[in-house]
Each structure stands twice: as C-alpha cells, then as structure tokens.
Amino acid sequence: MMKIWIDDVRTAPAGYVWCKSTLNALHTIYHNADDIVEINLDHDAGEYAFEGGDFINVLKELERLCHSPNALKRAYWLEHCINYRFVLHSANSVGIQNMRAIIEKNGWKEVR
C-alpha cells in the first residue's frame, strides 16, 4: 500500500513516495490509484509552483475527477477518494482551511 508525501522542501518520511510538484503528484496518483492509502499534503509548492501550481490543486483535480460526466470514471475516482486518508501538514493556516474545505465538502477522510 502506497503513501504519498507531497511537499517541495520537507523530505518524505520513511515509507512514503515523495512528490515535489503538483504534476508529479498527479502523475503518481493516476498511475497508482489502486495502491494508495494515504495522501499527505503541504499547501505551498514554492519553487515547484510552475509545475501545476500549489498543492491544493491536487485536491481540486481529484474533486474534478469525482464529478466527471463519464459515469465509469466518476465511479472509479469516487470509490478511491473516499478510501484515501488525507493528511495536511502545511504551516499555511489559510491554505489548510481551503484544503480542508475541499476534503469535507466531498466527504473524504482527513486524518489529523
């Protein structure tokens, strides 16, 4: 089971796959969706922001997939996202609130 650490600066803890940009994180999620158990996110992408913006965009993309007009794609992502554990580790309090709002709105599971 895969745990993903999304942060531009902080090194991933042992047992996590480290993604430094939003595009890298989304690529990892798309190709390993069935194996993921946890997505642990920072908010600010820092110098990696040119690769997909801040990390809140990972949650926005998952939300978009969960509302896809394609019923099979929507069902696939709804099932996965509801089973993922989301952990937020940002020092950006406003960013945390915005990310938490996406998680709560979709009924996903945040682990604090």
Gist?
The protein is α/β, with parallel strands linked by helices. It is 43% helix and 19% strand.
Word description of this protein:
This protein is α/β, with parallel strands linked by helices and about 110 residues long. It is about 45% helix and about 20% strand. The protein contains 4 helices and 5 strands, in the order ββαβααβαβ. It has helices at about 20-30, 55-65, 70-85, 95-105; strands at about 1-5, 15-20, 35-40, 85-90, 110. The protein has a 5-stranded parallel β-sheet, with helices on one face. α4 (about 95-105) links the parallel β4 and β5 (about 110). α1 (about 20-30) runs parallel beside α2 and α2 packs parallel to α4 (about 95-105). The longest helix is centred in the C-terminal third of the chain and has 13 residues, at about 70-85. The two termini are about 20 Å apart. The model has no long low-confidence stretch (mean pLDDT about 95).
Strand order of the largest sheet: 2-1-3-4-5
- The low-pLDDT segments are none
Helix share of residues? 40-55%
Principal-axes shape call:
globular
> What structural class results from the helix and strand content?
alpha/beta
Radius of gyration: 13 Å
Distance between the termini: 20 Å
Summarize the biggest pleated sheet: 5 strands, parallel
- How large a portion of the residues is in β-strands, by DSSP E? 15-25%
Give the strand tally. Answer: 5
Number of helices: 4
One letter per element, helices H and strands E, the order comes to EEHEHHEHE
Mean of all residue-level pLDDT scores: 96
